[in-house]
């Protein structure tokens, strides 16, 4: 049939191109996240800035920085504990998945519980990001948190990578000066 159409369009090629573009966009966002968090870790003086490049440790580093901001405001530090707990449960679920996944009722309950763990992971990382943003760019914390919910936090972290945290600067002003 495509013999009669000089510009035959193959839909499989379209999906392959879209998949390749999505993969490239994912890698680009990952690099932006890591670069931004690495630089922010250096700006705060927190040790182990290289955690920014490791996926689970990236979230832990964000939680450490969020707890740092909470502590500076006299609030309870819980983000690191929450991130570790949800991470351990997620890894345990991943290890146990092959055992329970295909059992009829147990598998359904396991998939539901595993989805809730994923949702808890998102909530923990967004909370950590929110407190991180309140320390680095208080006036834009809400907008950057929305980007974190959409998993576009690499853009926000890259944009504020050179900011001095409010806790270090000692003054909470509406917009951070660029140093």
UniProtKB/TrEMBL annotation:
Keywords, ordered alphabetically: Membrane, Transmembrane, Transmembrane helix
Domain of life of the source: Bacteria
Annotated transmembrane regions: 12-32, 78-100, 112-133
Record bears the keyword Membrane: yes
Protein name per UniProt: Uncharacterized protein
């Amino acid at each position: 049939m495509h013999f009669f159409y000089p510009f035959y369009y193959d839909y499989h090629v379209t999906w392959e191109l879209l998949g390749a573009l999505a993969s490239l966009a994912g890698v680009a966002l990952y690099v932006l996240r890591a670069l931004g968090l690495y630089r922010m870790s250096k700006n705060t003086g927190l040790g182990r800035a290289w955690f920014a490049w490791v996926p689970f440790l990236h979230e832990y580093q964000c939680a450490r920085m969020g707890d740092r901001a909470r502590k500076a405001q006299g609030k309870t530090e819980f983000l690191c504990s929450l991130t570790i707990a949800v991470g351990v449960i997620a890894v345990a679920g991943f290890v146990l998945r092959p055992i329970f996944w295909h059992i009829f009722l147990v598998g359904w309950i396991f998939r539901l519980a595993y989805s809730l763990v994923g949702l808890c992971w998102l909530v923990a990382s967004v909370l950590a990001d929110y407190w991180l943003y309140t320390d680095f760019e208080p006036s834009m914390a809400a907008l950057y948190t929305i980007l974190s919910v959409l998993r576009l936090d690499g853009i926000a972290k890259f944009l504020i990578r050179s900011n001095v945290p409010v806790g270090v600067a000692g003054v909470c002003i509406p917009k951070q000066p660029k140093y």
